[in-house]
């Protein structure tokens, strides 16, 4: 299944992160965005199509702000989840360059026609039609693609019909059925007309938000990015690229719960943990065209030097991540001891001479 | 059957929350509360909330989802609510007057059963939750009468179960004193002090144009299908005398005077009424700003 174009920059990254937090296949948000935008255009709301695309892509992005304990009661989880659209709206409102109305579409796309939705319990025409339409498209695609047994479009439409007048507006379900019947290629692309967005700033903000989910990682991405840039200059590598890759590592924690056992950072257990995070970060970055080149470095960042040839940026990331998690008093000695086996010797040497044990 | 359009005013708790957070507002009173979902949202986010309304069912619903911090309806209790209990005598023809006009015979019978079962509840919180849940059933039925072929047929007890269970999520403590009262605007504003007064002001002749579902649900709660809710508004600020521009302005001014103790007043308006409300608020507040987050929402915020 292809991901529609027009989603290949920072917004695509936000969308992929939201997919990861929501436990959905990467690219779901962008498929939802394209279908919702085309549906808006078919309903005569073409002026809002770009805002609908943004809201469709970033609908679940509020999940970044939601942290619940693994053993939290269902009631507590539901209460916290009720604020996800509100958090999402605030995140979208903070992104420079996206249409202003997109934030409100994110805010209300989980409302139900019968007033039982989140976050406000709005009903009927109090819910903006474009927001309600995103909810319908979301349910349609989830029904078709994301269930244990994926269904065809006809079956997915039947499931939507069962919720007409409850979760969904009868009129919009009717219009959606007509739209899907008239345009059966529901995965057709949509290219939003967006002004250029500062990908670096948007990535920095995204990584910061993910870091802030856990007290132990707060501020980690900025710290790693600064060190990665310094080390890259020392090694003659592209400093901005190294810094970007360091920030992208935060995407590995884009999941509802992340293992946080405090293993020795140079132990085999820690490597397994780091591998899971690196692979997730790599998969997310790899699903977005503008960041796909960084995916191999991210995936290789958890590998050990003795495993074989690695990408120079992966070797750099491996060293700065290891150094960041070591006790500052031991860092030079531990890094030196790991050089040649776990860490790339040249990169390790450069790190120790350039940065020592910075805190 | 009578076709009721599915129209309502957007009152967004999260929007109000944003307005409050930006201004450091920690408590709010809404003297024209209506169905208090917005107050429940604000309460969930830690604000002390107070509401007032003239219709009793709104107040009862508020006792369930605003005042109530802990009480929920457990499965067994919901089961006893949604069906006839053996050994109890039910007034099954209490709402017969609505049969064929708004509801089917079966639905009217259930309305009578639910009326009796909800009145038998011993807790204000549970009563409020039941009223809130069943309100959704009423709306569902009326909507289905407009779209009989496009909405699923759901047995009344199952529908009631679904909607009553759903009200649980509104029950949350916020360690503040939250209140609702059945009172007119002046009585509500004189009874509570808050950082802000939120006003979603009734339109002109609002009592005459009250949504049929709203009066119907009050009639259901009172057990009187012929209830006339218009009389409740007759002696209030907006009752009867606010049909022309001058008297409507005077009515709004009276409300703004009653709200003068609060540091902030937040008036929700439409773009069409914005200039009028801004002018009226300026007469009572030193600092006024108009915030229009989108084409459908506009807030006139007055500060002392």
Please specify the SSE layout and strand pairing:
The complex is a heterodimer of chains A (359) and B (304).
Chain A lengths: L9 H13 L5 H15 L6 H9 L16 H8 L2 H11 L6 H8 L20 H18 L6 H10 L7 H13 L16 H13 L8 H16 L3 H10 L19 H19 L8 H6 L11 H14 L5 H8 L6 H11 L4
Helix pairs in contact in A: 1-10, 2-3, 2-7, 3-6, 5-6, 6-7, 7-8, 8-9, 11-12, 11-15, 11-17, 16-17
Chain B lengths: L12 H11 L3 E4 L6 H8 L3 E6 L2 H12 L7 H8 L22 H15 L4 H23 L9 H11 L12 E4 L2 H7 L4 E4 L12 H11 L7 H4 L11 H14 L5 E6 L4 H9 L4 E8 L2 E7 L1
Parallel strand pairs in B: 1-2, 1-4, 2-3, 4-5
Antiparallel strand pairs in B: 5-7, 6-7
Describe this structure in words.
The complex is a heterodimer of chains A (359) and B (304). In chain A, helix 2 packs antiparallel against helix 3 and helix 8 runs antiparallel to helix 9. Chain A has 359 residues and is mainly α. Chain A has helices at 10-22, 28-42, 49-57, 74-81, 84-94, 101-108, 129-146, 153-162, 170-182, 199-211, 220-235, 239-248, 268-286, 295-300, 312-325, 331-338, 345-355. Chain A contains 17 helices and no strands. Chain A folds into two domains: 10-182, Hypothetical protein af1432; 199-355. With 304 residues, chain B is an alpha/beta fold. Chain B has one domain (13-245, 259-268). Chain B has twelve helices and seven strands. Chain B has helices at residues 13-23, 37-44, 56-67, 75-82, 105-119, 124-146, 156-166, 185-191, 212-222, 230-233, 245-258, 274-282; strands at residues 27-30, 48-53, 179-182, 196-199, 264-269, 287-294, 297-303. Chain B has a seven-stranded mixed sheet, with helices on both faces. In chain B, helix 2 (37-44) links the parallel strand 1 and strand 2. In chain B, helix 5 packs antiparallel against helix 6 and helix 6 (124-146) crosses helix 7. Chain B starts with 12 loop residues before the first helix and ends with a strand. The relative contact order of chain B is 0.16. The A-B interface holds A 75, 78-79, 82, 86, 89, 100-101, 104, 107-108, 113-116, 119-126, 128, 161-162, 164-166, 169-170, 173-174 and B 6-15, 17, 37-38, 40-41, 44, 136, 139-140, 143-144, 147, 150-152, 163, 166, 168-169, 172, 293-294, 296.
